[in-house]
Design brief:
Blueprint (H helix, E strand, L loop, with lengths): L3 H22 L7 E5 L5 E4 L10 E4 L12 H7 L57
Antiparallel strand pairs: 1-2, 2-3
Length: about 140
């Protein structure tokens, strides 16, 4: 959480609309420079002056349903401080969609009706009791 003065300073820098957006989706206010945008429309920011260590890079998802699987691998490496240069500046990470990659995003289906549910082919050791009511 941030201090009152830091929050007010960020409010002055980013404006009321972005302030409300960040408070709703991030829970904190951050002001920084836009580093780049990935193919899904997510925006990546960086601020080295005022943020705490390891909190200087962040992502603003395009879709309001926050899903970390919507992050490209190159941008994930940049966010996790594995590389210093963002994919827009790194020659190795500036590859387009590879032949084996899917062209569009496949969302994470956990906790939805489309989630993978394994089933067992073995008979259970304990069977539930089925009450039988006799006719009178």
């Amino acid at each position: 959480m941030s201090t009152i003065t830091r929050t007010l300073r960020n409010l002055w820098r980013i404006g009321f609309k972005e302030f409300g957006h960040q408070m709703q989706y991030i829970g904190d206010t951050k002001a920084g420079r836009l580093v780049g945008t990935d193919r899904y429309g997510n925006k990546y920011y960086e601020n080295w002056e005022e943020e705490l260590p390891l909190r200087t890079r962040w992502i603003d998802y395009k879709e309001k349903e926050l899903d970390p699987s919507q992050t490209d691998p190159g941008w994930h490496a940049w966010l996790a401080y594995m590389v210093d240069a963002p994919p827009t500046q790194d020659k190795i990470l500036q590859t387009a969609v590879r032949k084996w990659e899917l062209p569009e995003l496949r969302p994470n289906m956990t906790l939805t009706r489309a989630a993978y549910k394994p089933y067992s082919t073995t008979r259970p050791k304990i069977e539930a009791w089925q009450p039988v009511a006799a006719e009178r």
